[in-house]
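Marked as duplicate of an earlier ticket. Keeping the data here for the record.
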Amino acid sequence: MDFQNRVGSKVGSGGVAGYSETNVDRRERLRKLALETIDLNKDPYFMKNHLGSYECKLCLTLHTNEGSYLAHTQGKKHQTNLARRAAREAKENNNIQPALQAAAKIQVRKNMVKIGRPGYKVTKVRDPITRQLGLLFQIQYPEIGTDVIPRHRFMSAYEQRIEPPNKAHQYLLFAAEPYETISFKVQSKEVDKGVPPGLERAPIANPLNPYNAPVMRGPTYVHG
């Protein structure tokens, strides 16, 4: 081989290595060092495919052997992608942290053992002025806490899973811990939840517990 045109070379020394030779030698030294110090089983981005070759799940690159993959992990592309992923995860964590703090402030409701169904009484009533038909629901909740507010709502026949749906009926549900939720099947008609003139009554703290309350709530009127 002619070395006379290579600057700094001497006969028998093999010549001065160029950029490509230096780069190959550097990658080979990094590969050997990585093989000694890195456990590929703990690398989340290392994957062996069905063809026997290796892939980097972060950079979506294909490698023929483990040494090639380890050399890739020391390269600029892999390190850049690692930095980008770390920055994205840090940004996502900053956005999630306030939500987690807000969720921590929300009191988690504990599972409460039901003590059975409450006592109830349903009475048909009629407005003496308008002659409008109504239903008076009286539910007994003697064991509920002072901070528990009984709740009620109307449910369509298509929401329940106990009976075949019938659009001619709807359900009125009452619930208060620790009692079981009870429901009443009523006609699916327009419901007037207000109190007609002449039947105004003072509000009570626990409208679904009339037996323990000083006054009773007004009835629910159904338009006939």
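See parent ticket for discussion. The radius of gyration is 39 Å.
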